[in-house]
Amino acid sequence: MYSTKSVGLGFAVFSAITFGGSGPFAKALIGAGFTPEQAAWLRILGAAALLVPLVLIFRGAAGLRAARSSWKSLVLYGLTGIAGCQTLFFIAASRLPVGVALMLEFSGPVLVVAWLKFGQKVAVPRSAALGVGIALIGLATVVEIWSGLQLDAVGLLAGLGAAACQATYFILIDKLTGAADPLVMTAAGSVVGAVLLTLISAPWGIPWHTLVDTIAIGHRHAPGWVLAGWLIVVSTVVAYLAGAAAIQRLSAAIGGAVAYVEVVAASIFALILLGETLSTNQIIGGAIVLVGAFVAQSSVGKVVPPEIPDSDPDSDTPDPRTADLDPARI
Which of 106, 129, 248, 268 is most buried, most CB within 10 Å of its CB? Predict the structure, then answer.
């Protein structure tokens, strides 16, 4: 048992670190001429192209049947947890320090509490309300609200939009985990996200030449295809697969705690690769946000949202509420 959890913890930390590297590499592509939507489209399409064959090889017809039985939830997952979350994060990261953009996104559990309390009229633990209050104090510190908003308004709204998409993910994952395994979920969500972003990102206008050019990432330079390859393979496919391996070995509480390593990792990547630093208020406020969001997430993890019905009430599929959960990824 100890060995299994230790391996799971290793996978979870590795997943959080690899996810944390996405911001700087995407920001470099955006600086070279990609729009945030195009960078997200490239990332998600590349991930779908790699993950769909893996599903066919390792899951076969059973994986396709699982996806078909939960297709409505998987479509919403692809629209929000994949396309919406990643695109809005990239927009925020293109206008704000990467660490701040990720802090905003990881306030998603605060919105879950609000949705349960006011949208679904579900009684939530007092600790959830406490977490919300802590996170709001942290957000106010990050944006230095006492001096007027100090962050780019579009970037701030995009970061909060990413948080809303992450909140939707937290609500959906309770039904999807166990009904469709993580590999199938990620592949299906990537296909849906790629289709959606094809319609809104105008990929025909992508400056494809930048992928063979040498582009800047901070004070360094690298071929564009290397940055795109890292974003697709390491920060998406490898990161999701490592997260999937962690799901099977860790409890929801441990998995949720480890996920916040991603924010620290992203800030370190941004410091090393882009030279981005955070102000003292942003560091303090970010730490407060993460504490509050984690308290809220841990509390609402015990609450079952009633809105999304089972796709097949008579199925022998295990109840997903008994499965371990994994936090939303960018």
Answer: 106
| Amino acid letter, residue 129 | A
| Cα–Cα distance for residue pair 58/69, rounded to 1 Å | 18
* 26: enclosing H helix or E strand: helix 22-31
Q: Which H helix or E strand runs over 143?
A: none
Q: Which residue has the tokens 């993950």?
A: 51
10-residue averages of pLDDT along the chain (330 residues): 74 88 93 95 95 89 80 90 93 90 81 77 78 81 68 89 85 67 86 93 92 92 95 90 73 62 85 86 83 75 49 44 43
Q: Are 184 and 329 in contact (CB under 8 A)?
A: no
Could you tell me which residues come within 8 angstroms of residue 229 by beta carbon, excluding any fewer than 6 positions away?
none
Which two tokens mark 90?
């990239």
User: How far apart, in whole angstroms, are the C-alpha atoms of residue 6 and residue 17?
Assistant: 17
Please list the residues that pair with 223 across neighbouring strands: 214
Q: Tell me the DSSP string of 200-231.
A: HS-GGG--GGGGTSEEEETTEEEEHHHHHHII
How does DSSP classify residue 242? H
* Distance from C-alpha of 327 to C-alpha of 317, rounded to nearest angstrom: 22
Tell me the pTM: 0.81
